[in-house]
Design goal:
The protein is of the alpha/beta class. The protein has helices at 12-19, 44-49, 51-54, 74-78, 87-97, 169-176, 183-187, 192-206; strands at residues 2-6, 23-28, 38-41, 59-62, 101-105, 115-117, 130-134. Helix 1 packs across helix 8 (192-206).
Length: 212
Amino acid sequence: MKGLDLFCKAGGCSMGYNLAGFSMLGVDIEPQPNYPFEFVQANALEILKDHSFLEEFDFIHASPPCQAYSRVSLQHREKGKTYPDLLEPVRKLLIASGKPYIIENVQNAPLINPVILEGTMFSLKVIRRRLFESNVMIPQPPRVKATGTVKNGDYVTCVGNGCDGINRISVWKEAMGINWMTKKELTQAIPPAYTRYIGKHLKWNLGFSGYI
């Protein structure tokens, strides 16, 4: 069972799929020295056009840049700054591939019928709500209300320099369930618990035995 992780960064999503039982290959246009699995430095859009390359994969995950929709970049967008929006081009190429796919992005992104995942669903000390669109059925887990606040130190945000006042990288790593990334990489990462959940249901829908 093999998955392709496009725009993989340091591999938070890949690790979750690996924990669900998939071997992973990551693709990113920038070097990713801390990515924990097989890695190819390349343009993800060009990779998606190479159907012969895609044949070896059971599914494709893509996390196109989120700055066009994220809250963090809103103040810059309001001042006229523009960011690349690759969501629709990526979706078209994923559909054309004929493969099962997942698109991940921030909560304001225009994903189609997305599953919403956040850290409280997996007993993590980070909220980090993210959307996941797929052409495979992934059930929506029930929302779990936070039992504390960032201000009181019950949760961390893992953004910037640590606007929650908790700057120890060990705290960020524990909150995210990630132990191999730098602080900067953690600010862009997805907790592996999210894609482990998705990966379990992918295995079921793709007909693999040994569902976990």
